């Protein structure tokens, strides 16, 4: 069975849990799902096993606490420790497609933005001069920043699941960190001076490249999915 | 408790291998079987062990459709699992005798 199917079944079956058991189980579920670099199919399989077990136990009048113990975080940690990690090939393909999405979105946003300014505000020219040095430095710094932020967010989620924070507190923490992140990105783009050789590139060309990369990624995804389906069959 | 956990981990692995060797079994059934033998482990603690045994390739899980109730993941012993279980039994008998001897030294003297 595929992970998507397991996730769908899990959503359905969770409805059958009592309020108390559902709360306990969902904490474990979120904690295990946001743990990075674990193989998805194995993760969803163990989650559905735990859920089936809990449903059986609930039917016999037992609570989640009795089944999984008083400390859900410790239990979830134990499961995460034993889950198989994704292999290097999958990690690389995940990272490279992430990088390509990043580049394609940058091209599209920049191209469309320029077009908008040109046609609507009537302020710009359609050929953009790009400083290769600045562009490289900006890209590297934003990728590092984005990765760090992702890592921090995941750890915040993992930490907060078992803390029973008030939703106001949680919202406030996320809001502040959101503002700081946006500020940091802006700082990167504003503080880096123009340097390095320049190339001139037309907005239409940028959009074209962005679209080509997206189409390429889409085709790649469809081909990979067909391959995977064949293996499973 | 902590000083017991390391020891218990290995023993629990062996017991689970033994139960699986009798019949392919799914998680809930396995926990019921273990409790029938008064093995005092919390039900949930079998799952990290099952994952570990799968990683060591001693057991294999297979999801089977069942006519009533949800699909279940049944566990089988692999060739390596059968061997590992034999090793466990041998080691266990040895250790049990040695420890018994040691603990009963008064009677022997």
TrEMBL record, chain A:
The keyword Transmembrane helix applies. It comes from the Bacteria. The chain crosses the membrane at residues 94-120, 140-159, 171-192, 204-223. Keywords: Membrane, Transmembrane, Transmembrane helix. PANTHER family: MEMBRANE PROTEIN, MEMBRANE PROTEIN-RELATED. This is DUF1129 family protein. It comes from Anaeromonas frigoriresistens. The lineage of its organism: Bacteria, Bacillati, Bacillota, Tissierellia, Tissierellales.
UniProtKB/TrEMBL annotation, chain B:
PANTHER family: DNA-BINDING PROTEIN YIZB-RELATED (PTHR33169:SF25), PADR-FAMILY TRANSCRIPTIONAL REGULATOR (PTHR33169). The lineage of its organism: Bacteria, Bacillati, Bacillota, Tissierellia, Tissierellales. SUPFAM superfamilies: Winged helix' DNA-binding domain. Transmembrane segments: none annotated. Residues 16-86 form the Transcription regulator PadR N-terminal domain. InterPro entries: Metal_resp_DNA-bind_regulator, Tscrpt_reg_PadR_N, WH-like_DNA-bd_sf, WH_DNA-bd_sf. Pfam families: PadR (PF03551). Gene3D superfamilies: Winged helix-like DNA-binding domain superfamily/Winged helix DNA-binding domain. This is PadR family transcriptional regulator.
């Amino acid at each position: 069975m595929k992970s998507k199917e397991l996730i769908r079944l899990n959503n359905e079956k969770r409805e059958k849990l009592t309020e108390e058991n559902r709360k306990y189980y969902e904490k474990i579920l979120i904690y295990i799902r946001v743990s990075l670099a674990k193989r998805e199919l194995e993760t969803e399989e163990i989650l559905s096993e735990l859920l089936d077990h809990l449903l059986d136990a609930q039917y016999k009048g037992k609570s989640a606490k009795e089944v999984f113990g008083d400390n859900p975080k410790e239990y979830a940690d134990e499961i995460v420790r034993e889950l198989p990690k994704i292999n290097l090939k999958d990690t690389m393909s995940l990272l490279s497609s992430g990088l390509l999405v990043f580049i394609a979105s940058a091209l599209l946003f920049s191209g469309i933005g320029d077009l908008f300014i040109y046609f609507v505000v009537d302020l710009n020219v359609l050929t953009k001069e790009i400083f290769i040095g600045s562009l490289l430095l900006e890209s590297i710094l934003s990728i590092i920043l984005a990765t760090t932020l992702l890592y921090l967010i995941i750890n915040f989620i993992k930490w907060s699941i078992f803390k029973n924070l008030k939703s106001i507190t949680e919202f406030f923490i996320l809001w502040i960190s959101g503002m700081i992140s946006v500020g940091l990105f802006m700082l990167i783009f504003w503080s880096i001076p123009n340097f390095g050789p320049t190339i001139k590139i037309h907005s239409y060309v940028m959009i074209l490249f962005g679209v080509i990369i997206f189409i390429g990624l889409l085709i790649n995804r469809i081909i990979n999915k067909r391959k995977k389906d064949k293996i499973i069959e | 408790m902590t000083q017991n956990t390391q020891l218990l981990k290995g023993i629990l692995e062996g017991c689970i291998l033994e139960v699986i060797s009798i019949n392919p079994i799914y998680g809930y059934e396995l926990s019921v079987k273990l409790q029938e033998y008064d093995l005092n482990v919390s039900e949930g603690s079998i799952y990290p062990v099952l994952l570990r045994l799968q990683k060591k390739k001693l057991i294999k899980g297979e999801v089977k459709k069942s006519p009533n109730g949800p699909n279940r993941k049944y566990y089988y012993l692999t060739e390596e699992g059968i061997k590992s279980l034999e090793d466990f039994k041998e080691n266990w008998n040895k250790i049990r005798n040695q420890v018994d001897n040691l603990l009963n030294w008064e009677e022997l003297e």
